[in-house]
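DUF3147 family protein
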Amino acid sequence: MLAFVAKALLAGVMIAAIAEIGRRLPAAAALVASLPLVSILGMIFLWFARPDAENMAQHAQATFWFVLPSLPMFLAIPVMLRNGVNFWAALVLGCVLTVVLYLGMVQWGPRLGIRL
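Predicted structure tokens:
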């Protein structure tokens, strides 16, 4: 339980740091947010929980394939905002787009030979 709390606190600190940096330097916050820190920390925690090279390789490869469907959201949201869509609506629509693309990846990825 202590490990879970530590992981949650670390994630919270990362999010808070990005938000604070973003108030002054939006591009710098975007850079920090784009770093695969969560993925790297997740791999480290997973390795300590289950030090299995094949399991880690599968995890890293699946992470790559699931990052791809999330990327269009980061283009759709600015387009919507610049065209007058309310922030919350743009955020929700961007998230819906990502979920639809994730479902597409789960449905079509294995059919295309992608191991998830």
